[in-house]
Write a structure and sequence with these properties.
Elements (H helix, E strand, L loop, with lengths): L3 E2 L6 E2 L11 H37 L4 E5 H6 L9 E4 L4 E5 L2 E5 L4 E6 L1
Antiparallel strand pairs: 1-2, 3-7, 4-5, 5-6, 6-7
Length: about 120
């Protein structure tokens, strides 16, 4: 009978099915969990920056419809200008979005914060 090597442990085993790649179900689960953890670890820095940005924008906007702050003020509050979810445009201007918030660049190094 043909033997195969387990993708996780490297141990040799005799497959019971044609498409079996692991010696046991536990090895398969552990292997898939390791792959999922690597994916989460790769996304963690950006997700953390986006969460921080959203928290800052939510606190600064409060219940207002829109507010204006300087770039320096936002950066001093811990805002990361390179972390955003999308760039959008309308007939008036283009703006950066962080989830439900929009930042529109204005003159004099100011940014207008509003909800989309």
């Amino acid at each position: 009978m043909e033997t195969r090597q387990d993708l996780l442990t490297g141990e040799e085993f005799i497959p019971l099915r044609r498409n079996q790649r692991f010696a046991s179900r536990a090895n398969q689960v552990r292997y898939n969990n390791l792959l999922a953890q690597q994916k989460r670890d790769a996304k963690r820095p950006l997700d953390r920056a986006l969460d921080t940005n959203r928290t800052i924008l939510k606190r600064l906007l409060g219940e207002a419809k829109s507010v204006m702050f300087s770039r320096d003020y936002l950066m001093g509050a811990g805002y990361n200008l390179t972390a955003y979810t999308q760039i959008a445009e309308n007939e008036k201007a283009s703006y950066w979005c962080v989830y439900e918030f929009a930042l529109t660049p204005l003159q004099d190094n100011k940014l207008k914060i509003s909800r989309k």
